[in-house]
Design brief:
The chain has 474 residues and is of the alpha/beta class. The protein is 34% helix and 20% strand. Bound molecules: ligand BES and zinc ion (2 copies).
């Protein structure tokens, strides 16, 4: 499905309108009856944020956008109102936003909230659901076609990420995921390369191969490259996404109740990287970015990797596997050491890595850690507040390093009962030698209950954050 966002230069008396106002409102141009005017002022006095008028030929929604001093809070309130409007408009096909506000960003954020809320994943339903809103029109002088195109591209990218994450393992193997990445890349002029099992073996990606040993399907390693001629950065930024298309835990099998139910989301990092690459390329950002996606499922079988195994990784480091359910770090580590060949200015990995991160902050934000990237992390945090895809930074003290020491190999893949999200980060850090930020999106990627405009299921969190962060560097 797609929510179209377009500009309109004229409105007719059949158009459903959402009139965005802030405190003082003037509806004289809409020829409202005395009763309608009275009704609106009464409701606004009662502090109703959205007043609905049914004029039979069309609906009017009077939206009262309160002004908040803090800009980021204000923009988030606009998105939340956008979601509330979507839940009121029921079966309308289109709506025109009429903006009488000073700031054009308010209307953009409002439309963003609407479009994000309007998402649904019903490709596997054979019975048609009620059709949802098809088009959001802007009737706003201050909003340019460029602003609208940018928003449309961002929304499309978030939808793509959500679709990929919502897609079950039965319909998305590692090879399917690679195909999806290539599809998006082809559409938007991104260079793509998919390495197959043989090539992965040649590259000695021991971590990815170990996790894949129990699988019936071959692993993939996908490289996406966006480097336009007018790139502002010489050294690229590399994004790495965990692509576990289903995580059973492997031989260290997860209990089937609850903990395995949503494990199709374990390619959330990969889905987010694909979405970010699409957002960057479709908006033609002059910045050189690469996306790396190691992918496989993780399951038990006669040939599966086992607790106690020692694995030689792509970097040459040896890992003692003490829990096959800590598989994300095994495949990410190979991608992180592979990233060194690009001499990156910054590497950011995204991964549904630990239950510990999810239980610490829930689905309300992203757990972050970093090494040698103080300035970049601070900047990313700023865009976290701007997009409301916020970062919660965990300590990354050297004291934690000892927790992943192994008796028989260089390191082990679990750190014990304490600080699970941090020891996972510490494990990854051993495979980096560049400024690096780790984003654990285990909680953020998916919500079991509706979470405002993020909906229910895959949220797509991380796409808007990274898009705006990357844009700020151009
Ligand atoms: N995919 C899981 C983490 C996860 C949990 C993602 C909840 C989304 C929601 C990861 O591979 C995992 O199993 N991690 C283990 C690590 C442990 C065995 C050290 C965990 O967090 O329990
Ligand atoms: Zn796992
Ligand atoms: Zn996992």
């Amino acid at each position: 499905m797609k929510t179209h966002i377009k500009k309109k230069t004229r409105i007719s008396n059949k158009d459903n309108l959402a009139l965005l106002y802030s405190n003082k409102y003037d509806l004289s141009e809409f020829n409202l009856s005395f009763q309608e005017n009275n009704y609106i002022s009464k409701k606004l006095k009662e502090n109703k944020k959205i007043v609905v008028i049914n004029q039979y030929s069309r609906f009017l929604f009077i939206v009262n956008i309160e002004q908040f001093k803090e800009k980021n809070i204000h923009l988030e309130k606009c998105r939340i109102l956008g979601d509330q409007l979507v839940s009121k408009i029921k079966d309308l096909k289109s709506i025109v936003l009429v903006n009488n506000l000073e700031e054009k960003e308010d209307a953009i954020s409002f439309a963003e909230g609407m479009a994000l809320a309007n998402y649904s994943f019903n490709k596997h339903k054979t019975m048609q659901e009620n059709p949802s809103l098809n088009t959001i029109y802007f009737f706003c002088k201050k909003t340019s076609q460029k602003d609208i195109n940018e928003l449309q591209n961002i929304i499309d990218a978030v939808y793509l990420t959500r679709n990929l994450i919502n897609e079950p393992f039965s319909h998305l193997t590692a090879q399917d995921l690679a195909k999806e990445a290539v599809n998006s890349a082809k559409k938007f002029g991104i260079k793509s390369t998919v390495f197959n099992k043989k090539e992965i073996e040649k590259m000695k990606m021991g971590g990815l191969l170990a996790v894949n040993r129990g699988s019936l399907d071959e692993p993939t390693f996908t490289l996406l490259e966006w480097s336009p001629k007018n790139s502002k950065n010489k050294k690229p930024i590399v994004l790495v996404g965990k692509g576990i298309v289903f995580d059973t835990g492997g031989l260290s099998l997860k209990p089937t109740t609850n903990s395995m139910d949503i494990m199709k989301v374990d390619m959330g990092g990969a889905g987010t990287v694909i979405g970010v690459m699409q957002a960057v390329a479709s908006n033609n950002l002059p910045i050189s970015v690469k996306g790396l996606i190691p992918a496989t499922d993780n399951r038990p079988s006669g040939n599966a990797y086992a607790p106690g195994d020692v694995v030689k990784m792509h970097s040459g480091i040896t890992v003692e596997v003490l829990n096959t359910d800590a598989e994300g770090r095994m495949i990410l580590a190979d991608a992180l050491s592979y990233a060194k060949k690009f001499n990156p200015s910054l590497v950011i990995d995204l991964a549904t890595l630990t239950g510990s991160a999810a239980s610490t902050i829930g689905h309300f934000g992203i757990v972050s850690m970093h090494n040698m990237a103080e300035k970049e992390h601070c900047n990313l945090k700023k865009y976290g507040e701007y997009t409301h895809e916020r970062l919660a930074e965990l300590p990354f003290w050297s004291d934690y390093d000892d927790l992943i020491k192994s008796d028989i190999a260089d390191i082990k893949n679990i750190g014990g009962p304490q600080a699970g999200a941090i020891t996972a980060g510490k494990f990854l850090c051993r495979f980096t030698d560049y400024p690096w930020i780790h984003l654990d999106i285990a909680g953020a990627s998916y919500t079991p209950k509706k979470y405002g405009y993020r909906g229910k299921g895959a949220t797509g969190m991380g796409v808007r954050l990274l898009y705006h962060f990357l844009k700020s560097l151009t």
